[in-house]
UniProtKB/TrEMBL annotation:
Stored InterPro entries: RNA_pol_sigma70_r4_t2, RNA_pol_sigma_r3/r4-like, WH-like_DNA-bd_sf
Name of this chain's protein: RNA polymerase subunit sigma-70
SUPFAM superfamilies in the record: Sigma3 and sigma4 domains of RNA polymerase sigma factors
Domain RNA polymerase sigma factor 70 region 4 type: 35-81
Gene Ontology process terms (BP): DNA-templated transcription initiation
GO molecular function, one term: DNA binding
Pfam families assigned: Sigma70_r4_2 (PF08281)
Gene3D superfamilies to which the protein is assigned, alphabetical: Winged helix-like DNA-binding domain superfamily/Winged helix DNA-binding domain
Length: 92
């Protein structure tokens, strides 16, 4: 909690705007579109915060008010779904 407060107070946490994510996610010409559409909201939030915004899983968990193990689980499921969908789309 102390780290999160420090990040927010010092504006170290620069969340991307919802519009930027929306533009990327809804770009149907991008092969990641179909993979990201398979994710639940929780999986998508954790994936974007950890992989795109480079936040640690501890920080992601704190910001989303979930446990670190839940964040790890959401991230693992997201990565598995994305990998699976990308493999399927290779042959389309």
């Amino acid at each position: 909690p102390e780290t999160i407060e420090k990040m927010i107070n010092q504006s170290m946490y620069q969340k991307q705007s919802e519009d930027e994510y929306s533009d990327f996610i809804h770009d149907v010409n991008h092969q990641s579109y179909y993979a990201l559409m398979k994710l639940t909201k929780q999986e998508l939030d954790v994936f974007l915060m950890h992989k795109c915004e480079q936040l640690s899983l501890n920080d992601v968990a704190g910001l989303l008010n979930i446990s670190k193990s839940a964040a790890q689980s959401y991230l693992k499921r997201a990565v598995n779904k994305i990998n699976s969908e990308m493999q399927c789309n290779l042959f389309l």
